[in-house]
Amino acid sequence: MDRFLQGVADFSGWLWGVPLISLLLISGLYMTFKLGFFQFRYFGYIIGQTFGSVFKKPKGVGTVTPLQALTSALSSTIGAANIVGVPAAIMFGGPGAVFWMWVIALIGMALKFSESVLAVEYREKNEKGEFVGGPMYYMTKGLGMKWLGVWFSFALMIELIPSIMVQGNSVASTVEASFDVPPLWTGIAAAVLVSIVVFGGIKRIGKVTEILVPFMAFFYVGGALIILFMNIDAVPEFFSLIFSNAFSPAPVMGGFAGAAIVEIIRWGFARGLYSNESGLGTAPIAHAAATTDHPVRQGFWAVVGVMVDTLIVCTATAFVVLSSGVWTEEGAIDNSSALTTLAFESYFGTFGGILVTLALIFFVFSTILVVIFYGAKQAEFLFGLKASYGIQVVYVVAVVLGSIGAAEVIWGFLDIMLAAILIPNVIAILLLSNKVKELKTEFFTSQQYYKKDKKEQSQ
After folding, report:
1. What does the pLDDT look like over 143-187, one tens digit per residue?
2. Which residues neighbour 321 within 8 Å (Cβ) at sequence distance 6 or greater?
């Protein structure tokens, strides 16, 4: 059994190495070229249409506000990867891995934009009058490949069971280590809180994440900003360290064993993609419910989601870890998951550890909320609305079972199951790339949208 599990781990490590990173990189570059580098050309306009319009009434129709759709999507992506994954990338790939994390985020914006645009374009209303959409709908309606939609939907619905168990275990382990609370109690408490929110549907989830996500992001990033101002002189050195190691083999230093250029790029790309989930097909399920007058306008919110997740939150973690020097200490590579906590503690003492612990609990809890919603939408697509309530019960039970470490054996299959979702979604995006380009061109050339917005701005 041990040999089999090791074989699964080895295959998973290979699959999420060159094969899938190449697929995402090439498809991200292809969509970036095809869409005319829009994420760079219209960056200021995109910010204005998203964060700049938060207090304006959204245009068009939908179930939740664009901000609620974004915070729901961010709830899934801002998680343990931002706190634990970044120091792992630094320890195994060196500081230069952070640069490649930024690169894949900028390229990944085109994929995230494309899948969200398609989700809105091919969405429909369910029995409750709520807008639903995502890869399973654009595969079915856009490509006429219902079998591919069924594959994606079923694979995601099943994959979320071990995924939720891992999240439940993560939050229970964190609470036990920090506050000495038995894992089972944490699991039950988390399950009750999750049930109260998720059974209220996307509207309740949106209202909760709209408050929770900005709070937890400001709480965590705010702590990093205080450290930044305490060490403002370290900023040039921070960027110098990242850029100098991005294109050359990283040297051996203290706890860091050094890394070849290929490893630097691989770790940066892998952690970046794991963090922002560009091309995975999950975030579009949330964006499909947004109130909007054009699919492209909601696609802009998906773009800023990548910016918040990777360019802001992951960079905040990287600055704290690199500026503190904890990554150079002996034995650091064997304890990479704790480096963020140690880094914050080096600045704030015991409070720093509590800050990271609370951030991790909030991040993981919000992730559980939204991925249960994602899973429910798959059951609804496959079997109807009633089935969505049944699978939600299964997911809530999975939170409790995961908290006590049940079924750890199947956790090793998680990455392989993720690949079974990602591959059909990227194929669908590429096959529908002309539709994405058509919608993007329509938005930027029509008098109803971009030109009207620019005219209003100039008045």
Report:
1. 999 999 999 999 999 999 988 998 888 888 888 877 888 999 999
2. 86, 87, 90, 327, 339, 340, 343
